[in-house]
Amino acid sequence: LQFTGSGVIVTKDENKLSLLDQTHSAIYDLRLSSLSEVELRVVETFSSFDAVIDLITCAKLLDLPIKETEEFISNIQLNNVLQHFTSGQNILFTSDGLKKHVYSQIEQKEKLHLKIANKISEVLQSFNKNELARHYELAGEYEHCFSVLENEIIEAEKLSAFYYIKNILENLLKLPLSV
Known about the structure:
Strand content: 5-15%
Number of helices: 9
Largest sheet: 2 strands, antiparallel
């Protein structure tokens, strides 16, 4: 941004934009640098979700005791990475840019998404089925994704949730399924 007497001008200079992006990455890396290995796993897990997850869900996904998970999240908050709202159990990133940065640093995304999907299927049967299907999709497990969404359609039909069914069917059309 450049401030002039006639107003604000947004720059399109690629060098300046690249420098700004590098600065953001450096700030994010600084926030993450003091986290332990387990705390980084917690942060990576949160970054891989589109849905908001809570402390208990995180503890179950990582096979950690709730009290220990609470301590990890507290330290992560002190590093200004996650924020835990006292009015509820929801835990969010302090910024969407930081969430995207953490996710971009995950080396084996497909493996992480498969691990999460399997864990959700195993211990969190009432979890958001669209989010479960998304994890299977990002893990490359399209048949599992299809199966989860197919079952979700059956449940939605019982409630006459036709708009919801339409959205699920549109997502299914995008899957690269083999015939």
